[in-house]
Amino acid sequence: MTDFALSPGQGFPDQDWIKLGGKKPPGRAVVRSAGSPRKWDKRAGYGITGAYLVFTGDDLASFEIDVIIWEEEHWTEWLAFAPVLEKPKAGQKPKAIGIMHPLVNRPPWRITSVVVDDVLQFEADDTGEIWLCTIKVTPFKGPAPALSKPTASIPAAGAAVPTAQDAADVKIQALTKEMEGLL
């Protein structure tokens, strides 16, 4: 199967696979609850009904990936895939992992990297033949430029020293400096 393959005659993507860190888990994978939440600042004016909204940026929404396995060889394939989900070793800087799925990589989600929040144990269905493991992830987005706080203020008008324009201004500045020295 090629990445982002269209199902024959259906015109929409084949959605039962995923790649994490370049590896495909065994069996079938289903993504649930991926979103693209936004942050809004609600501002109300004095003496008016209602409010106006100011968009303040993207927010992150955790979502889940269910890996469903049912064949004996899926267990062996899981052991080859599972290292992608390991916690970082002590003292090692954690890294986001790439994610490929025909829907979450597209607009409006545009999710291409995730961090693993949790990996739940496999649970069997009532027949004991189908096993499900839920992987909880959060999209990773690097910091984006934003407006910054001012680091200093403009000096007060009284503290500024004007530049002399002519001989009279030079004389006034000299006398002002002399007077400040006497105080």
Fold blueprint:
Layout: E1 19-20, E2 28-32, E3 38-43, E4 52-58, E5 63-69, H1 72-81, E6 97-100, E7 113-119, E8 123-124, E9 131-139, H2 167-182
The amount of beta strand, in percent, is 25-35%
Structural class: alpha+beta
**H and E order:** EEEEEHEEEEH
What is the count of β-strands?
9
What do the pLDDT scores average to? 82
Count of alpha/pi helices: 2
What fraction, in percent, of the residue positions are helical? Answer: 10-25%
Note the overall shape: elongated
Give the oligomeric state.
Answer: single chain
What is the CATH fold-level name of the domain at 19-139? Elongation Factor Tu (Ef-tu), domain 3
Characterization of this structure:
The structure is a single chain. Strands 1, 2, 5, 6, 7, 8 and 9 form a 7-stranded antiparallel β-sheet that branches. Strands 3-4 form a two-stranded antiparallel ribbon. A hairpin with an 8-residue loop joins strand 3 and strand 4. The protein has a domain of about 120 residues: Elongation Factor Tu (Ef-tu), domain 3 (Beta Barrel), CATH 2.40.30. It is of the alpha+beta class and about 180 residues long. The protein is about 15% helix and about 25% strand. The radius of gyration is 31 Å and the shape is elongated. It contains 2 helices and 9 strands, in the order βββββαββββα.
